[in-house]
Amino acid sequence: MLNWISALGRVDITYATRKLARYNAAPRVVHWEAAKHVFGYLKKHPKFALPVDRTPLKSEPGVPIEVKNYDAELALFKSLYPDSTEIRDPNTIPSMKTGIVLTLYVDATWASELNRHSITGYIIYFGSTPIAWYSGKQSQVEGSTYASEFCALRKAIEALRGLRYTLRSFGIEVDAPNVVYCDNRSVCSNTEIANSFLKKRHVGIAYHLCREAVAAGVARIQHIKTTNNRSAYRLKKD
Question: Which domain does 14 fall in, by range?
Fold first, then answer.
């Protein structure tokens, strides 16, 4: 029930719901008490509205990555990944809507779980309307913030690719690269500067997948402060 409520628009309970869902196979009393706590929160705060607005979000303030000429940098990316293309359905109906902007925020909490797994979180905006969000435990234990953030970025870009494909099927044109906000400067540099090098070999798949998305014109990664990251998850003491 909580998963359905979260999917229908209650973004604020996504993390708690996904964490409780891990224990569906063998729940204990403590999990039942935690679930009742979430329902108590919904009872106390029954009203929650998502804004519906096609106006693009305002650009977030942040320290820009030093890319002198983006067009030249993009050409260099395409030379490094010559086979990078975005999958398109040849039977897609002609575009009827244009001017819609997708914006993605992504973040990860490094080793925040008791078993030292990290949490991935992202939220995608259609104009100024949040339409897709996710919070879940990463399947592997990462040894650094850099690695956990790169794995989170990979998952977010995979979701962005699927959403762009779906929107085209609805007749909505999405050709320009979508802005992806990330608060890890090293990750942003590796995906915005073509000549940057991989720091951790075990995240090579995520590294090349994200850079290939930039080369294919799917995403453009931008750095922002953590305080401005809408997908950031913070632990707060009551």
Answer: 2-44
Within this chain, do residues 187 and 101 fall inside the same structural domain, yes or no?
yes
Strand partners, 222: 181
Calpha distance 204→112 (Å, rounded): 23
pLDDT tens by residue, 93-142? 777 767 678 999 999 998 888 788 999 999 999 989 999 999 999 988 88
Is residue 15 within 8 Å of 135, Cβ to Cβ? yes
Distance in angstroms (rounded) separating the CA atoms of residues 188 and 205: 16
Give me the CATH number covering residue 185: 3.30.420.10
Q: Exposure pattern of 183-207 as b/e (b: 16+ CB <10 Å)?
A: bbebbbbbbbbbeeeeeeeebeebb
Query: What is the domain count for the chain?
Result: 2
Same domain for 108 and 38:
no
